[in-house]
Amino acid sequence: MPANKKLLVLPGDGIGPEVMREVRHVIEWMDRRRSVTFEIEEDLVGGAAIDVRGMPITPDTIARARAADAVLFGSVGGPQWDNLGFDKRPEIAILALRRELGLFANLRPAIVLDPLVEASTLKPDVVRGLDIMIVRESTGGIYFGEPRGVETLADGQQRGFNTEVYTTHEIQRVARVAFELARKRQGRVCSVEKANVMESGLLWRQVVTALGAAEYPDVSLSHMYADNCAMQLVRNPRQFDVVVTGNLFGDILSDLASMLTGSLGMLPSATLGQADSSGRRHALYEPIHGSAPDIAGKGIANPLAQMLSFAMLLRYSFAMEEDAALIERACTNVLASGLRTADIMAPGMAKVGTQVMGEAVLRELDKLAA
Ligand code: NAD
Ligand code: IPM
Ligand code: MN
Fold first, then answer.
1. CA 253/CA 230 separation, integer angstroms
2. What percent of the chain stands above pLDDT 90?
3. What mean pLDDT is predicted for residues 291-311?
4. Residue 49 — φ and ψ, nearest 5°?
5. Residue 353, ligand 1, Cβ within 6 A
6. Distance 307 CA to ligand 1 centre (A)
7. φ/ψ (deg, to 5) at 274
8. Whose C-alpha lies nearest to ligand 1, atom 41?
């Protein structure tokens, strides 16, 4: 383990900097209390970078991300940048990082913490104890497929088009991540596509089936169409252990899964690249939520998804399982004590803002580490 852990912190836009501020305090706490040193660089991405540098992410920022041991990303985007050309939008920042660093496996755990059982819009009996992992492919599919664009037809109409495309290799490497995770969990993988209407989905199903049979006979593999999966996630989410799916379906299903846990403001994620021969791999950690322009600047955003993303960073990039679990326990205890941000507010609880929630997590860390 390197003595100095190099982190690149990219707060971004909207609530990104608000929730990242609270995480910075947790990092400082760890520096003080846990004898680890983080060497932190911070940079602009998204709309913030467009305003200052005229582009959503610079080659220099991408180079710094490549050189870092891990990247902690906030969120990007906002209505003030919505009318820019497609190659200039704030969202390009995250897409470029995934693509340039080869971050193909986006791990999105949806875990229902006990104190939040009542916060879900679903019945407590349906979500209690839920612990699923959505593995979303994140450098391919329709997000990056060619051809793409908008063209003008002879009759003057316009035609917009994108291409869903997956190669054997792309499917195998993300499926491997899912199978490996399942081995450490309940040993079940559900692969999700639309093999009934899409050739790329049919190939996906065939490749995952062959890989499972050849290399992971101990893991139980099932297949499901994406539309049915959306329904099943709401009907009986605990039937799933690991779900593996493509970029677009994974984006949608993980937002859906977040509401099982109570709020989009609760879901962290890790996006991992391929490990090299020394075991080193690029990795980026971010909440699954966006910049939430509707609540930005009000100090009411839930910082827990960003904090839990940092916990994932400790676990997956630095094998600091104990410290990751410590942060997760601190978040759970604060919720158990009755504090709630607006998005997870329930009757009888105490409504607090971003900063008070962040400070409560720090106090809890002090208590747990005492
Ligand atoms: P969003 O995730 O920003 O917000 C959806 C809803 O959830 C909003 O009502 C918001 O207030 C709420 N919400 C989200 N995070 C919250 C939190 N931490 N605490 C409390 N409430 C929270 O999605 P959107 O509104 O569709 O998109 C807004 C912008 O964010 C768009 O520009 C979009 O492209 C971008 N976006 C960026 C990322 C990213 O940077 N990774 C992810 C998703 C969306
Ligand atoms: C996410 C976001 C991004 C995505 C956008 C902002 C490009 O929605 O990380 O879930 O669609 O991947
Ligand atoms: Mn999304």
1. 6
2. 93
3. 98
4. -75, -35
5. no
6. 16
7. -75, 135
8. 75
